[in-house]
């Protein structure tokens, strides 16, 4: 009896060991699940475009200094603002990027003894955000930015009484949406892509796009009572805008002027009206003039807005990694799958600039991975906001260059997981009329093997 018992125990031990060996050795093949490789490490620096002239390089460096400066009330900051510098929003992985790992808005709320409370949707490890209200109290459309903070209580604004917006009520009534900063790397190249190139790319592969439910259209700049979205080459009227989450801004100068006014509350030559005209909160700022009449530095004659635009215009695009993550072969497979699944129909790998008087911007490839069109992204990503011709569910195809080093994804920074961001592109239904144009492409992505999904994710994080 004992001999039989011992033999049974030995047999059971052998079976258990064999089972353990089989499950352990089989696990990588049967339980493997694709994951976001995470933020690509490595030191990044804000590089200028190659082949700039000596004068252009000097302009770039002077403009970068302005881009990184912090403003105070004497310089026009506020009365309402989200931060006090461009670099506060655009710093990951370096100057010109997107939201950093440590959100500067938390410390800024009480900078110089300001009496701001930090809104519930702002956290130290979350993205830099701006807030927009969808509706006014009477139910009419709002859509404007409601700045998070005021200068009330600051040492340099002793007479200002200016309350923060009631974000708690807006959140309770589902009346607030968020936006995070868009990177500005390679922005000058994007600015120089001709409208005809954008429209030609829109028309390319029409049958395949139609079968996938992909439409897309430019956010055409209209003025006054214009009723046509057709280009008429009359100034900016009728041309394709391309900057911002909804491609609402045509040029970098306009993009910079709006951000200076909206994000920092500073009036400028493009936006002359104060964000808030409360008595005691609006004082005459220190004039930004050249005091040394003997200066030979021409950059001193430029306004901050002009310098912001120049910095973005001459800022080089990100450099992709040839072998990380996953290695050269995996990245190459992922790039091929990116095309075959259908991602490239919206995230166009390369467009080209037209002629420019700046040689570094003229007739150049722009490997941005975007068609610069606005697309209906369905109810899942809808924000209820209209900008230009972009409707409540429409967003510009976000350029993917530099994706490997971004921390937050989608227009509101709702996730840091690239896989989640891909899945968030799919929502709604053609039956209910609220389908995302990405639904079919995301479905094809989901049909890939886990190994192929990993290749595609590796490729995206290599950008």
Key traits:
single chain; 15 helices; 463 residues
What would you report as the Rg, rounded to the nearest angstrom?
A: 26 Å
**What order do the SSEs take from the amino end to the carboxyl end, as H and E?**
HHEHHEEHEHHHEEHHHEEEHEHHH
What strand line-up does the widest sheet have?
1-3
Measured between the Cα atoms of the first and last residue, the distance is: 68 Å
Class derived from helix and strand content: mainly alpha
User: How many extended strands?
Assistant: 10
Kindly state the mean pLDDT as a whole number? Answer: 90
Helix content: 25-40%
Q: Note the main sheet.
A: 2 strands, antiparallel
Shape, please? globular
What percent of residues are in strands? 5-15%
Number of helices: 15
What are the low-pLDDT stretches, counting only 5+ consecutive residues below 50?
A: 1-30, 225-229, 289-295
Structural notes for this entry:
There is one protein chain. The chain is mainly alpha-helical. It is built from 15 helices and 10 strands. The protein has helices spanning 2-30, 54-68, 86-89, 105-108, 167-172, 187-191, 195-203, 206-212, 252-263, 304-314, 328-341, 378-381, 418-424, 439-447, 450-462; strands at residues 80-81, 130-133, 149-150, 176-179, 219-220, 240-241, 351-352, 365-366, 374-376, 394-396.
Write the layout of secondary structure elements.
Layout: H1 2-30, H2 54-68, E1 80-81, H3 86-89, H4 105-108, E2 130-133, E3 149-150, H5 167-172, E4 176-179, H6 187-191, H7 195-203, H8 206-212, E5 219-220, E6 240-241, H9 252-263, H10 304-314, H11 328-341, E7 351-352, E8 365-366, E9 374-376, H12 378-381, E10 394-396, H13 418-424, H14 439-447, H15 450-462
């Amino acid at each position: 009896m004992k001999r039989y018992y011992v033999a049974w125990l030995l047999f059971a031990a052998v079976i258990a060991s064999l089972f353990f060996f089989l499950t352990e050795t089989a696990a990588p093949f049967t339980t493997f699940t694709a994951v976001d490789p995470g933020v690509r490490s490595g030191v990044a620096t804000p590089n200028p475009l190659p082949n700039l002239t000596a004068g252009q390089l000097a302009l770039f460096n002077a403009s970068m200094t302005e881009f990184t400066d912090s403003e105070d009330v004497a310089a026009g900051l506020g009365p309402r603002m989200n931060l006090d510098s461009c670099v506060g929003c655009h710093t990951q992985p370096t100057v010109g990027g997107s939201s950093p790992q440590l959100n500067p808005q938390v410390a800024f709320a009480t900078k110089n003894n300001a009496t701001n409370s930090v809104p519930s949707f702002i956290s130290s490890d979350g993205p830099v955000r701006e807030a927009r209200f969808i509706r006014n109290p009477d139910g009419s459309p709002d859509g404007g930015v409601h700045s998070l903070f005021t200068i009330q209580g600051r040492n340099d604004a002793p007479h200002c009484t200016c309350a923060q917006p009631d974000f708690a009520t807006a959140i309770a009534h589902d009346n607030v949406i968020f936006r995070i900063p868009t990177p500005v790397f390679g922005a000058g190249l994007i600015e120089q892509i001709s409208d005809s190139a954008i429209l030609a790319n829109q028309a390319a592969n029409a049958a395949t796009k139609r079968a996938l439910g992909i439409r897309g259209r430019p956010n055409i700049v209209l003025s006054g009572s214009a009723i046509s979205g057709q280009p008429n080459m009359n100034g900016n009227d009728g041309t394709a805008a391309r900057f911002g989450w909804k491609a609402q801004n045509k040029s970098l100068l306009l993009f910079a002027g709006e951000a200076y006014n909206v994000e920092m509350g500073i009036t400028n030559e493009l936006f002359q009206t104060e964000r808030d005209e409360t008595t005691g909160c609006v004082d005459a700022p220190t004039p930004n003039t050249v005091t040394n009449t003997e200066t030979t530095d021409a950059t001193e004659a430029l306004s901050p807005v002009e310098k912001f635009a120049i910095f973005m215009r001459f800022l080089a695009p990100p450099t992709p990694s040839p072998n990380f993550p996953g290695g050269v072969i995996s990245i190459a497979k992922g790039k091929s799958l990116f095309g075959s699944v259908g991602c490239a129909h919206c995230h166009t790998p390369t467009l080209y600039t037209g002629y420019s008087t700046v040689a570094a911007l003229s007739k150049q490839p722009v490997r941005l991975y975007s068609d610069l069109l606005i697309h209906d992204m369905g109810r899942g990503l809808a924000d209820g906001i209209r900008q230009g011709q972009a409707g409540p569910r429409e967003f510009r195809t976000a350029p993917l260059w530099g994706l490997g080093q971004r921390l937050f994804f989608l227009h509101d920074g709702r996730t840091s997981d690239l896989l989640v961001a891909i899945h968030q592109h799919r929502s709604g239904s053609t039956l209910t009329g609220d389908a995302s144009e990405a639904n079919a492409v995301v479905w094809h992505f989901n049909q890939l093997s886990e190994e192929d999904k990993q290749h595609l994710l590796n490729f995206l994080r290599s950008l």
